Amino acid sequence: MNTKPIPEMSDLSRHYWEQAQREALVLQRCTRCGTYQFYPRAWCTSCFCQELEWTPVSGRAEVFSFSIVHYPPFESYTDSVPYILATVKLEEGPQMMCNLLECDLDAVRVGLPVQVCYEVREGDFKVPQFRPVGGGA
Amino acid sequence: MSNSSPAAYIGAVSELRPGRYPEWDGTDMYRQVVCKFLAEHPEIRPADIQGLLVCPAGMATGDADIFVHERFGEEIGIQPRFAETINAGGATYGVMVQRAVLAVERGLADAVLCLGAGKFPKVGGPGAAEKNAKMASHPEFEFPYGTFIPALYAQAASRHCHEFGTTEAQLAAVSVNSRSWAQKHPDALMAAKGPLTVEQVLASKPIATPFKLLDCSVPCEGGAAVLVCNSDMACRLTSTPARILGMGETHLHSSISQAGDLFELGGKSAAKSAFAMAGVSPTEVSVLESYDSFSFNPILSLEGLGFVKPGGGGRFFEEGRAAPGGSLPVNTYGGLLSFGHTGDSSGMSMIVEATRQVMGVAGDRQVPNAEIALAHTYGGMMAEHSVLLLGRG
Fold first, then answer.
1. pLDDT of B312-363, one tens digit each?
2. Complex ipTM over 0.90
3. N or C: which end of chain B has fewer CB within 10 A?
4. Contacts of A98 in chain B (CB under 8 A)
5. Does residue A66 sit in the same domain as residue A51?
């Protein structure tokens, strides 16, 4: 059983996680200036407009930075090392943290093209993750 | 010094020997800091101090106590006109000095006592590692991916390695440099371990690439006191006070995945403000004290602060230019890497050492003719930065 953490969602982020259960990646987009943002906020950090629209995005990204973790930080990761903790930059601009799944440890590099995928955790909860485009890398 | 340099000084510093003090809680640690400071400066009386700045006690254990200034004002026996419990992680004490300078300049206080005492988070107990990871990363959008502090810092380090070809051997050279300085400091935790080699660092246990165990600072407990004061008070306390030549701060992101410009993580804007205020350039700085919770950070600081070109930091350490006798000694007290990382109070060590260097009281590790010292501290995941430029008063 995958006992990795289930995020504690807020009213602000509930839609993001609900869409993730349907395997859709959505970002807030400002109705005034058009900027995409992540993570969810009550206002647009580019222009302070409070009218934001949830918008499906491509899920295409590239690796911005990463670390191959050898030392399990807490119990639910004991059987997962080594794993990759990465920051990816989405095609639409925002950056997000994730793990790189189905990725050869020798092949991970900054700039690697990746695509969103979903990891199933306890209670069938799906968490957005990324894997190399074309698989394996 | 320029006309815009503040008329404020550091007139006295004191620091506990880093170590493990299981018999002391957060309040006891503060008390020990005050005891040592008062013992070392017997000329100071309660009426001399009109300002008190402290950090929340017990942050590391998750039981932050934000009433420290209230309780310690009473315990020390003063009724300050200016007091706060403030926190900016590792940048706390740099920020405290900056607040104290403003108070002294404005005439709110002749002297402001800045105190810090800390215990390093113990992540061994049940749930403790998760709690620590949630503090260091976004609890909803980073923590669920298995975060912890080394892997979060590694996000910046791996980016730097990619952009500039910085090598793991260059990171290791930073740890080696710190150990060589630590051997000159009687209180440094790792002094007795003897010199360190690049090979030893590279062969140490892998934690989170590019970091191995010996790329990480040494957890311990400790604390320090810094007295920021006006010229009269400074002259009463010492013939060689440290003048505040310039200062700057920036508060960037909270979550490392949301960080922007890499060089801001090395203190770029804070340094720009400090150098402009001081009217000096990086080439005039004699010694650099740079926050080094990981070996990578002083490399980035050298670049961000403007001492070397982007990408030149690794080579600087590899060539021994930061070592004893080098062109710009870095972390002359041994750094968090070899002096010890005293948890909540870690950001004190750079300020204490920079002060001692320009005061000329740094013992065996004294840099000859140390006219100007720069203390760069940061808090969070390289998020909150303070830069102080100190000169011979």
1. 999 999 999 999 999 999 999 999 999 999 998 999 999 999 999 999 999 9
2. yes
3. N
4. 145
5. no
Tens digit of pLDDT per residue, chain A (137 long)?
688 999 999 999 999 999 999 999 999 999 999 999 999 999 999 999 999 999 999 999 999 999 999 999 988 899 999 999 999 999 999 999 999 999 999 999 999 999 999 999 999 999 999 999 987 55
Residues A92 and A41 in one domain: no
Q: A37: domain range? A: 9-57
Report whether B364 contacts B279 (CB < 8 A).
no
Number of A–B residue contacts, CB under 8 Å: 112
Listed in order, strand segments (DSSP E) in chain A are 26-30, 36-37, 52-56, 60-69, 83-90, 95-99, 113-121, 125-132
At residue B127, the pLDDT reads: 80
Q: How many angstroms separate the CA atoms of A96 and A103, rounded?
A: 18
Indicate the residue type of A123: G
Helix pair angle (B149-164, B128-136), 10° resolution: 40
Same-domain pairing of A47 and A106 = no
- Residue B287 touches partner A, C-beta closer than 8 Å: no
Q: Do A98 and B145 touch (CB under 8 A)?
A: yes
B-chain residue closest to A94, CA distance = B258
Are residues A45 and A70 both part of a single domain?
no
Specify whether A130 is located in the same domain as A63.
Answer: yes
Best mutation target among B145, B171, B209, B258 (most A Cβ atoms within 10 Å) is B145
In terms of domains, do A77 and A87 share one? yes
Any domain includes A4: no
Show residues of chain A in contact with B255, CB under 8 Å. 39, 97
CATH number, domain of A68, equals: 2.40.50
pLDDT of residue B122: 72
Residue ranges for chain B with pLDDT beneath 70: 1, 60-62
Alpha helices in chain B (DSSP H): 26-40, 68-76, 92-105, 128-136, 149-164, 168-182, 198-203, 231-237, 268-278, 296-304, 313-318, 348-359
Residues A40 and A21 in one domain: yes
Per-residue model confidence (pLDDT) at position B72: 87
The values of phi and psi at residue A11, to 5°, are: -55, -35
| B9-122+218-392: CATH number | 3.40.47.10
Task: Please check whether residue A1 lies inside any domain of the structure.
Answer: no
Q: Model's pTM, two decimal places?
A: 0.96
Cα A87 from Cα B151, distance rounded (Å): 11
Residues in chain B closer than 8 A to A7 (CB atoms): 139-141, 143-144
| Domain ranges across chain B | 9-122+218-392
Please enumerate in sequence order all residues whose Cβ is within 8 A of that of A51, keeping only pairs 6 or more positions apart, or say none.
A30, A31, A32
